[in-house]
Backbone:
């Protein structure tokens, strides 16, 4: 009977309680926002000249990694992980760069659409292999990271290629107010147009469901295999966007995978997404990416060796996870 | 008016299923008529849950056919079964922990209003739909799961031990609602261990034993005897030998107890639990599900630290921070869940020898000859069939359980903590395990035995303590520890008080009468009537 | 299921799918060695006469390096972990020795490198074993930390022209009579130790036990944090040794030298039959897996295929082999 008191207490929650509940549920994201604001203030303090160019630079440098973090977050939420993300981005990057080189601006649009389709296909291949072979995600995607990187090298053996002019212009500069960098707008639009509808749909629910408890999801009528494939497919789309953002920011194609795979995992963890799946959102990881980048910037302002910034990145990653698992260990004891 | 014939709503024939070497179902059949509440009965491990999973498509049978309304069906997934009108409420609620209740409803495409209606019927109208499933207590989750299943009005609703772990008032409501399902053209398949519930709400019962359907019984006055007989088979005669051993064993004297618990407590689950076990004694622990016995064993095995109280081993106080400490003090633990205790991919030998290498000073080279002898002796003593011993997961359930015990017998037993060690294993192995426990006791070991099968307490134990709501509420000598006495004690009732199930049964009786009337009314209209 | 059905009816049980499956499950070394033999034969067919003592020597010199790193992966994967910091640790160790070679001397450098590696492994082990951080994250984070610190060291160390010590060059790239690589002097004892540790010691048993079922291991009295701390220290020390040989093999001292070998090292262990989920596998298979990967590389480069094709083939093989393992072991 006491077993039921929990539900009775929370019944018919008042708005204030609802707000408190919302805050409790999004505590991690709110904490990250608070930390980011603090960090921005700190940045302004140590570098009073930090302003529009700084924010612009931050937005552009963050864009590929933010898209990678969203891609990784989707897969991790569904209970998987994708170690081929960086290779996928490189492949899309070089395909776009080789196809757009010397072509008309209009053809560039077709290339971009094609690149997005390519991303979907790459993701679908990863997901299908995982589901069909029943090999752990980590092994399949590790292997596929070789395959996609190999294809990238086949497409373009050395850095080169080009880009339609409108593509870099899409992400550089600002929109309306000089404080609103285009890159940030692009990121927001992309996430709002693709992720939010999915999140609210039945697919989004199933995606969280298979990450949270695969057996319960199966028994609730979710087709686990199909949903996993769709999660990877969606990840492929964001990986393609990340790859295109690389083409946009560099203007060329680089066939070597950047550090995006590992950094995206770091960002996902920092962003409060449980590596076990089912818990978190894609917004936390985006905040995580911005924070990681801003710390790097601050360290240059402070004249700290940039290598120590790498050390700090590692320490933050470990520290956050350690605190997270300590909290979990305590919670399970209580 | 269309006349509905008495055709079966659901029929399953010749279903068999094996998991590796473990045979879950040999040749099970089940026939459910429209409008009946059909009980599926069987001892632990008889195959009820597997049959249920097969019917809902969660597991695929090796052989057998399933027909729904006369049409043959192969169901590949719960989603498909649901579309075909078959819905199951499992023992573990199928709610996604990280989604709120409303999202869980959306996920299963459950209409909210009927769900609310059924929640109300089940006595939980206060539920906040925006609470995370993770934060809702288990009993409430089961009710939510049931309401969700009722809300989509399935043709066949399967309930697997729905009343287990429910408080009495909710049990009553659930039985009432289930009873009301009779007489329409839908059916309920009802799995329960509680005979009184079966008698109250079910029309017919199919009895499974060791994966086979051994009988179908109309539930009437006095049919319980028949059901029990079918369920148990030969068990009573086979076990008699053990009872003799128990009766013949020398009773504990006034020496220092092997293990003494003084006022153990743990959170809200365990309060002031005290008892002691003498050398050479088998002490039974009797409790309904979730009365704190799990926490008690976790504390004794060193997995959890008590919030208060003290433990004495051979008269001197001990405190465990890790299972290794308990093992060093001589307390070894045999778990019910073999998946928790075994290295499934490793050999019988490695499994049995595991405790021998856990301490740092045994990390070096293994004396293979000595280890081989120890393992051989343990295998022989427990009569383990180790032919498929390269990987423990290929052994049968009974042999697997023997391996978990052999691990400790190999090193000589001081005190053994057995948590439902015979769950889901065959009768022969059960007998062997009980004989072994008696042997150990005769050799001077102390044994603490929790078993969910009350019948067996009297066979094996010298004495039993009863835990209810986290407290020791009774201590019963072997002579008085028959099933009714233990059950009363487990419900924390005085010997002459009515059983809560009787209370629930009375409450249900009214409903049943009402349902019966509607059934009769249905019969007049040409609806099928169960012969129950 | 179809395999089982045919097993009952087929006249010769050795030709049935079930029999093959049993062989693959119980003696994975046999099909692996078969695959290796086939690859060697193919090498000789496409380039007649290429298979010679010298060719074997070249293969071995490359394989030894990868095999040691794959040893780190085998040990950690048996416990259900993974060690992605081996690249950073190995590169760091090679670089540290090189930076000491001109000044304080190679022996000092080796000691400093080993101590640094052990310290890194200890921190990783504490993170994984005590704080229960997922090994993937922990080792990933540690590789950032190690790389960063190594870079700082690079800037701090006044030695401008860091040279790989001659002893390492000799060990890593020379061979007895140009046939038997000197690196075997290091590898054979290391491999022997790993094989014995896994098969014949209590510690090895615990690695398998923790990977197979951590709860069962705990209930049997194993304190997994002790095992894991030792494990990650050992793994880091092995990585350091591999780093010494790598710097000798390539005659390069760089803080990112070995990074590209991390994923292949995991691949070698996977191909060799070690389950990334823990509890199953061994070092023998890993060694064969390493040889398979190395022979494929050399075959492809002898055919003039670009690096790209090698990578694609690598990836495909890993998926195919892992799928085959899952198929034969993942039933029950």
Residues:
């Amino acid at each position: 009977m006491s077993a039921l008191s929990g539900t009775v207490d929370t019944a018919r929650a008042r708005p204030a309680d609802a707000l408190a509940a919302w805050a409790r549920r999004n505590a991690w994201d709110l904490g990250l926002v608070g930390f980011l604001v603090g960090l921005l203030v700190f940045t302004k303090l140590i570098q009073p000249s930090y302003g529009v160019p700084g924010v612009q630079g931050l937005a552009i440098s963050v864009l590929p990694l933010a898209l990678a973090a969203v891609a990784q977050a989707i897969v991790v939420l569904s209970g998987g992980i994708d170690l081929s993300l960086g290779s996928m981005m490189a492949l899309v990057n070089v395909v776009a760069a080789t196809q757009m080189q010397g072509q008309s601006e209009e053809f560039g649009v077709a290339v971009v659409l094609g690149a997005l389709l390519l991303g979907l296909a790459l993701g679908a291949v990863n997901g299908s292999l995982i589901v069909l072979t029943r090999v752990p995600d980590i092994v399949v995607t590790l292997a596929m990271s070789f395959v996609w990187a190999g294809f990238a090298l086949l497409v373009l053996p050395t850095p080169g290629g080009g880009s339609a002019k409108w593509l870099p212009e899409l992400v550089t500069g600002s929109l309306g107010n000089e404080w609103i960098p285009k890159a940030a707008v692009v990121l927001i639009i992309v996430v709002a147009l693709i992720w939010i509808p999915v999140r609210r749909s039945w697919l989004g629910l199933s995606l969280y469901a298979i990450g949270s408890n695969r057996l319960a999801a199966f028994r609730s009528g979710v087709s686990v295999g199909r949903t996993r494939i769709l999660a990877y497919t969606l990840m492929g789309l964001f990986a393609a966007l990340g790859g295109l953002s690389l083409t946009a920011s560099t203007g060329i194609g680089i066939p070597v995978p950047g550090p995006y795979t590992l950094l995206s995992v770091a960002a996902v963890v920092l962003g409060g997404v449980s590596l076990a799946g089912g818990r978190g959102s894609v917004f936390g990881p985006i905040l995580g990416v911005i924070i990681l980048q801003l710390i790097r910037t601050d360290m240059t302002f402070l004249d700290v060796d940039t290598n120590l910034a790498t050390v700090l990145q590692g320490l933050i990653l470990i520290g956050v996870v350690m605190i997270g698992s300590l909290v979990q260990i305590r919670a399970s004891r209580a | 008016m269309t006349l509905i014939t008495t055709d079966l709503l659901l029929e399953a024939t010749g279903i068999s299923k094996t998991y590796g070497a473990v045979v879950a179902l040999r040749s099970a059949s089940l026939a459910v008529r429209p409008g009946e509440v059909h009980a599926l009965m069987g001892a632990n491990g008889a195959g009820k849950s597997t049959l249920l999973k097969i019917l809902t498509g969660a597991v695929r049978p090796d052989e057998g056919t399933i027909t729904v309304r006369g049409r043959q069906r192969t169901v590949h997934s719960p989603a498909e079964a649901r579309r075909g009108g078959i819905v199951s409420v499992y023992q573990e609620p199928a709610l996604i922990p990280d989604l709120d209740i409303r999202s869980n409803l959306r996920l299963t495409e459950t209409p909210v209003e009927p769900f609310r209606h059924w929640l109300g019927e089940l006595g939980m109208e206060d539920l906040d739909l925006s609470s995370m499933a993770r934060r809702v207590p288990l009993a409430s989750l089961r009710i939510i799961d049931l309401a969700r299943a009722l809300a989509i009005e399935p043709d066949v609703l399967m309930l697997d031990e729905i009343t287990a772990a429910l408080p009495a008032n909710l049990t009553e409501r659930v039985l009432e609602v289930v009873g009301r399902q009779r007489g329409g053209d839908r059916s309920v398949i009802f799995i329960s261990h509680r005979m009184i519930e079966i008698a109250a709400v079910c029309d017919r019962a199919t009895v499974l034993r060791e994966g086979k359907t051994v009988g179908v019984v109309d539930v009437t006055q006095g049919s319980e005897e028949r059901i029990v007989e079918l369920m148990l088979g030969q068990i009573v005669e086979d076990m008699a030998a053990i009872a003799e051993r128990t009766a013949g064993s020398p009773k504990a004297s006034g020496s220092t107890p092997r293990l003494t618990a003084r006022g153990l407590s743990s959170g809200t689950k365990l309060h002031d639990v005290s008892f002691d076990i003498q050398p050479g004694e088998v002490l039974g622990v009797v409790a309904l599900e979730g009365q704190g016995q799990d926490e008690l064993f976790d504390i004794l095995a060193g997995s959890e630290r008590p919030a208060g109280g003290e433990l004495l081993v051979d008269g001197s106080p001990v405190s465990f921070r890790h299972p290794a400490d308990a093992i060093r003090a001589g307390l070894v633990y045999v778990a019910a869940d073999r998946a928790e205790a075994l290295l499934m991919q490793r050999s019988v030998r490695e499994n049995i020898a595991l405790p021998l290498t856990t301490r740092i000073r045994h990390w070096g080279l293994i004396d293979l000859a000595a280890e081989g002898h120890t393992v051989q002796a343990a295998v022989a003593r427990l009569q383990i069939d180790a032919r498929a011993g390269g990987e423990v997961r290929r052994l049968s359930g009974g042999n697997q359980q023997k391996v978990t015990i052999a691990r400790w017998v190999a090193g000589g037993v001081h005190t053994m903590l057995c948590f439902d060690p015979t769950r889901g294993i065959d009768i022969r192995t059960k007998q062997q395990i009980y004989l072994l426990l008696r042997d150990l006791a005769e050799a001077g070991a102390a044994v603490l035995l929790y078993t969910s099968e009350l019948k067996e307490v009297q066979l094996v134990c010298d004495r039993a303590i009863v835990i209810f709501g986290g407290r020791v509420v009774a201590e019963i000598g072997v002579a008085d520890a028959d099933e009714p006495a233990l059950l009363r004690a487990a419900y924390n009732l005085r010997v002459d008080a009515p059983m809560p199930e009787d209370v629930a049964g009375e409450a249900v009786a009214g409903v049943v009468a009402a349902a019966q009337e509607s059934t009769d009314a249905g019969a007049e209209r040409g609806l099928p009537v169960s012969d129950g | 299921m179809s395999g089982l059905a045919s097993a009952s009816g087929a006249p010769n049980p050795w030709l049935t799918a079930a029999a093959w499956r049993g062989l693959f499950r119980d003696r994975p070394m046999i099909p692996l060695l078969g695959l290796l033999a086939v690859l060697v034969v193919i090498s000789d067919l496409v380039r007649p006469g290429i298979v010679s003592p010298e060719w074997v020597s070249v293969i071995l010199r490359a394989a030894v390096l990868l095999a040691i790193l794959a040893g780190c992966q085998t040990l950690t994967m048996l416990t259900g972990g993974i060690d992605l910091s081996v690249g950073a640790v190995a590169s760091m160790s090679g670089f540290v020795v090189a930076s000491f070679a001109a000044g304080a001397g190679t022996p000092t450098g080796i000691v400093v490198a080993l101590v640094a590696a052990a310290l890194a492994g200890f921190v990783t082990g504490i993170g994984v074993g005590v704080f229960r951080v997922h090994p993937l994250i922990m080792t990933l984070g540690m590789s950032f930390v190690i790389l960063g610190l190594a870079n700082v060291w690079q800037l701090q160390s006044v030695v401008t022209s860091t040279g790989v010590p001659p002893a390492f060059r000799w060990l890593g790239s020379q061979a007895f009579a140009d046939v038997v690589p000197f690196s075997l002097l290091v590898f054979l004892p290391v491999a022997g130790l790993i094989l014995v540790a896994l098969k014949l010691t209590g510690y090895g048993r615990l690695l398998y036990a923790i990977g197979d079922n951590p709860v069962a291991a705990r209930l049997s009295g194993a304190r997994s944090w002790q095992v894991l701390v030792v494990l990650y220290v050992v793994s880091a020390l092995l990585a350091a040794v591999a780093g010494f040989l790598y710097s000798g093999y390539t005659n390069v001292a760089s803080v990112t030298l070995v990074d590209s070998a991390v994923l292949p090292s995991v691949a070698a262990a996977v191909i060799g039959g070690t389950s990334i989920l823990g509890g199953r596998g061994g070092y023998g298979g890993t060694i064969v897996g390493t040889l398979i990967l190395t022979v494929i590389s050399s075959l492809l480069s002898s055919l003039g295929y670009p690096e790209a094709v090698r990578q694609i083939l690598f990836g495909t093989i890993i998926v195919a082999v892992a799928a085959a393992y899952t198929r034969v072991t993942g039933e029950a």
Chain C touches chain B at residues 26, 196, 200-203, 205-206, 208-209, 212-213, 215-223, 226, 279-280, 329, 331-332 (CB under 8 Å). Chain C has 15 helices and two strands.
